[in-house]
Amino acid sequence: MNIAVIGTGYVGLVTGTCFAETGNHVICVDIDEKKVERLKQGEIPIYEPGLDILFDRNTRQGRLKFTTNLKEGIQGAEVIFLALPTPPGEDGSADLSYVMGVAADLSEIIDAYTVVIDKSTVPVGTAEKVHAILSDKLSEDLFDVVSNPEFLREGVAVDDFMRPDRVVVGTSSERAKEVMSRLYEPFVRQGNPVYFMDERSAEMTKYAANSYLATRISFMNEIANLCEKVGANVDMVRLGMGSDSRIGKRFLFPGVGYGGSCFPKDVQALAKTAAENGYDFRILNSVMGVNDKQKHILSKKIIDYYGGNLSGKTIAVWGLAFKPNTDDIREAPALTIIEELLNAGASIKAFDPEAMENVKQVFGDRIQFAEEQYETLIGADSLAVITEWPVFRAPSYKVLRELLGEPVIFDGRNIYDPKVMETEGFYYDSIGRNKVVQKAEA
Ligand SMILES: NC(=O)C1=CN([C@@H]2O[C@H](COP(=O)(O)OP(=O)(O)OC[C@H]3O[C@@H](n4cnc5c(N)ncnc54)[C@H](O)[C@@H]3O)[C@@H](O)[C@H]2O)C=CC1
Ligand SMILES: O=C(O)[C@H]1O[C@H](OP(=O)(O)OP(=O)(O)OC[C@H]2O[C@@H](n3ccc(=O)[nH]c3=O)[C@H](O)[C@@H]2O)[C@H](O)[C@@H](O)[C@@H]1O
User: Fold this and answer.
1) I need a surface site. Which of 5, 98, 272, 292 has the fewest CB within 10 A?
2) Where, by residue number, is the active site (predicted)?
């Protein structure tokens, strides 16, 4: 099949590459000329594990191409994916200007039957709006609009896309349904379902899924905070709860709050949709409130430890991305935490395996960056772990003790065992577990 993907970001590039991998001919379109130039040169502008192998193979074999020219990109395409940004507008609702703008452009240039597929996360009713824009200029038999929300996670995006738990397709057109079945057939060979439904339900499914996952995280963060107060260990509570098959083990990890380009904006957008429809979605407001508070938990622990004043103190920071295995720092808790530490007078020496270039754009020379994790410890008073990259999980405690001013670790992701910390002589404060309060001999 000939496929056009409009918007070549985290979702568009993965979508385009994975469809090329299943034998389709894909043209990715983006307005960002520099990005398209890099892609044409064979350079992937984002860090996404496993994408490079597929990207190289499919560009080399001519199934994956890039352009800035929309008309050229959609020429001969049977389907057009919209993988465009839907950032929060000023009032918290999703900004649809990118999607609507491209729909208007497409209405001028589609000249044969095409399925226009919305992969961006968009509020209920958007497929109808896109349909209205297209039908302004095009006869109804030239297009169908389908809602096909994407559920991939950054960091494991290729795997999620190639083996989706499910595919959700919202369409009322039998013709589009046939095209979508053909398109996704290679991805669901193991029997994972393709759910066909109406467009509004598909759009709602995406927000419901993200908001529910965000709710689980905020719930666990509240449980963790309460565990600290009552002397319980949230790790054990998590295991005890999660083994109940009705609850499940995944997405119960407390931490420094959820970040990323989607949970924060999607929870907000769903709350806005509810409000616009006269419904007070109270849980969502709490989910957002809890998350905002949770983003300050680690910096508060650090600031309290130093009695409110961090002048003259240097904090080593491990992990900046909003989660491991990505370079994405959109809404990353690390940004909030570092800003607070700086405001309290601290100096920061940070390391992240992939996200440092992006963080430099935010903080410039207000913080120092290290080439590798142990370099952050030189001259630092204590260590804060903010993102649980695998490389941080089994450090040399000896080197940590030798390099840190004091053997003090603040762990925002509970990656170390408090018992080990005690044996190794660290002061150790984490999320939802008793503090290890002791000081090793200097
Ligand atoms: N990032 C993720 O993990 C996921 C994102 N989503 C949703 O997918 C959508 C896209 O998200 P991302 O890929 O993260 O965004 P992104 O910001 O990484 O990529 C969007 C791309 O669209 C391009 N663009 C903007 N206007 C354009 C135009 N008029 N023509 C062509 N290209 C244009 C931008 O230059 C950019 O490269 C959003 O609605 C998001 O909520 C859904 C599932 C997962
Ligand atoms: O719509 C989207 O963009 C995507 O949003 C999330 O994916 P993503 O944001 O890439 O990353 P997640 O793994 O979901 O993590 C989101 C945030 O929650 C935090 N998190 C996650 C899990 C957990 O147990 N605890 C926790 O604090 C992570 O640290 C991270 O900050 C969803 O998991 C995807 O299904 C969805 O497609």
Assistant:
1) 292
2) 262 (nucleophile)
The predicted structure's pLDDT at residue 442? 43
**Spacing, Cα 56 to ligand 2 middle (Å):** 27
How many whole angstroms separate alpha carbon 316 and alpha carbon 130? 48
Mean pLDDT (whole number) for 391-418: 97
Per this entry, what is the length of the chain? 442
Q: Give ∠ CA 357-363-369 in degrees, rounded to 5.
A: 55
The two domains 2-196 and 297-429 share their CATH topology (first three levels equal) = yes
3-state secondary structure of 64: strand
The residue whose CB lies within 8 Å of the most ligand 2 atoms, and thus the one to mutate among 210, 234, 329, is: 210
How many other β-carbons are positioned within 10 Å of the β-carbon of residue 251? 14
* Confidence at 438, pLDDT banded by 50, 70, 90: confident
Name the architecture of domain 297-429.
Answer: 3-Layer(aba) Sandwich (3.40)
How does DSSP classify residue 115?
E
For residue 261, pLDDT over 60 is answered with yes
Q: Minimum-distance ligand to the CA of 219?
A: 2
How many C-beta neighbours within 10 Å does residue 441 have?
6
The superfamily in CATH containing domain 2-196 is: NAD(P)-binding Rossmann-like Domain (3.40.50.720)
* Domain positions in the chain: 2-196, 206-294, 297-429
How far CA 298 is from CA of 70, 166, 307, 412, in Å, comes to 46, 36, 14, 6
Can you count the helices (H) and strands (E) in the chain? Answer: 17, 14
Q: Which residues line ligand 2 (CB under 6 A)?
A: 121, 150-154, 210, 213, 217, 251-253, 255, 258-260, 262-263, 322-323
Ligand 2 centroid – CA 260 distance (Å) = 7
